[in-house]
Amino acid sequence: MRKVLGIGVMLLGVAVLGLWANSHEAPALQSRIAAGAAQVAGGSVHGISTMVSGRDINIAGLADSAAERDALMAALNNVPGRRVVRGELQLLPAVSPFETAVFKSAEGGLSASGHVPTEKARALLTPALGEAASALVLASGAPEGQMPAVIAGIAALGPMISGAAEVSDGKLHVSGDVLGPGERGAVLLALAGLPEGAVSLDLTLRDDGTPPDWTLDYSAMQGAVLTGKLPKGLEVAAVAGALGLARIDNEAKSALIGEPMPEVPAIFGILKGWMADFERLRVRIGPGGSRIEAGFGAGADRELISGRLAEALGPDVALDIDVVESEAPEGAERMNAATGQAERLSAGYWLPVASFAADRASCQAQAENVLEGTTVNFVTGSDRLDADAQRVLNRLAAVIAPCAAVGLKAEIGGHTDASGDPLGNIALSQRRAEAVRAALVARGVPAAMLRAWGYGASRPVADNATDEGRARNRRTTVLWSE
User: Fold this and answer.
1) What is the pLDDT of residues 377-414, one digit of tens each?
2) 82 and 120: one domain?
3) Mean pLDDT of the chain
4) Alpha carbon distance 50, 40 (integer Å)
5) What's residue 23's pLDDT?
6) Angle 281-282-285 (CA atoms, 0-180°, nearest 5)?
7) pTM greater than 0.70 (yes/no)
8) Residue after which a domain boundary falls, among 179, 205, 231
């Protein structure tokens, strides 16, 4: 009996010792299982979660593929001491092709579409994309080069005005607009780290970097148009204003880079005074300098005009002057683009269209009105009409022709100042009056209705003692008779 009791006491002691051992070993075992499970989870693509209860491992999360899921389950089942693995890993949908696109608007904002391989990759893109990164859908199937290409594409969008960086299965296509060659170089630099053949480009340069080279073409019939490449900052309206034109059609593009040209070149201000005389005009300004080709109407003195313009423009401007004949039929009408004046072709000359009652008093008033603000100029000491005489003669012919048509006759008077020999002045004034008469006849006025008379200095209208007075005395007059 005593022996049986001793055996019972021994067995009880062993049980108590076992329970004590288990109570101390179980936490340590659970910790070892948890550490092993965490090590397996740490190697997962999407970071699965593991929780250990006793010796059981509970899992949740995403597996990138069936292969990864099977590998994770095998690794968890091999954790020493585990009893069972509970839970299920969801398979992430696979996409093919794997595409990620980032877009930059003209305002500079970024947007994104397509897929991202991991949340870690999304976090990597968030500093650049901000909220736009949330639009990317998590998916599996990304090749190894997908994210480096996306990151490089975002960097390439930086110097661009607008565009897209589209990655498909690791191949990057960058398209859009850049300001100029410098910005294009910055795009290429951002893509330099990608493998050869992994990038394609379709970039449009807003400015190709070539220097400004532009042309103004003008015709009295059709007006003016700009073509070519204008300097940065040059306004078309400013060019029109410099020439005294109401408008200029613009078919030119403007430079976006380079030194700005806020002011219109001075040659346009010089040409402004001749716009009423041009039948056609071409001004080209480029890297090779400035060149002007001008065509004047019938009767223009090419030599005098060339000399006058060359002196005003200076030696740096190439100049080519010509006299052109109109191809329009006699009597054709047009609106002169420079003056806004209606004109009619008479004997090859474009004359302003005059509208008034052709009686003696009206004809006298109209002729005096033409000659009041200006006069017919001659080369000093000569009867050669000066370079700018054509516009006055055209206006005068436009008045005289309808008056002569109703039977009125006009005396063209030549007058000089009192300088020099009186008889020489009479002879000079006669020759000048005859030159004006010949110019009017050339413009269609009947020769029989005109006579020329030289008065010399006999009829002054101002004091010959002053330069201003002498200038007023050198004049042409028109006197009408029945």
Assistant:
1) 999 999 999 999 999 999 999 999 999 999 999 999 99
2) no
3) 92
4) 9
5) 54
6) 145
7) yes
8) 205
Residue range 27-69, pLDDT digits in tens: 889 989 989 889 998 888 888 889 988 898 999 888 877 788 8
Residue 472 — φ and ψ, nearest 5°?
A: -70, -30
Least confident of 6-20, 52-66, 186-200: 6-20
pLDDT band at 74 (very low <50, low <70, confident <90, very high): confident
Half-sphere exposure of 337 (CA within 13 A, CB side): 21
Q: What share of the chain is helix, strand, coil (3-state, %, to 5)?
A: 35, 30, 35
Residues 6 or more apart whose CB falls under 8 angstroms from that of 127 comprise none
In angstroms, the CA 391 to CA 378 distance is: 13
Range of the domain at 34: 23-91
Which tokens hold the place of 313? 């423009």
Q: Looking at the domain assignment, is residue 153 inside a domain?
A: yes
Smallest Cα–Cα separation from 50: which of 27, 73, 71? 73
8 within a domain of the structure (yes/no):
no
- State the pLDDT confidence band at 482, using cuts at 50, 70 and 90: confident
Q: Collapsing DSSP states into helix, strand and coil, what is residue 373?
A: coil
The string of DSSP letters for 399-452 reads: HHHHHHHTT-EEEEEEE--S-S-HHHHHHHHHHHHHHHHHHHHHTT--GGGEEE
Q: Which residues contact 224 (CB under 8 A, 6 or more apart)?
A: 216, 217, 218, 240, 243, 245, 247, 248, 249, 337
Residue 86: Cβ within 10 Å count: 12
Three-state DSSP at 480 gives: strand
Residue 5 lies in a domain: no
Q: Confirm whether 48 is domain-assigned.
A: yes
Question: Tokens for 264?
Answer: 């219109």
The runs of H, that is alpha helices, within 81-177 are 119-129, 146-157
Q: Quick one: average pLDDT of 444-449?
A: 97
143 neighbors 98 (Cβ within 8 angstroms): yes
pLDDT for 109 equals: 97
β 137-138/110-116 pair status: parallel
Q: What is the DSSP letter of 91?
A: E
Contact 147, 124 (CB under 8 A): yes
Same domain, 476 and 361: yes
CA angle 157, 163, 164 (to 5 degrees): 80
Tell me the mean pLDDT in the region 345-356. Answer: 95
- 263 & 285 share domain: yes
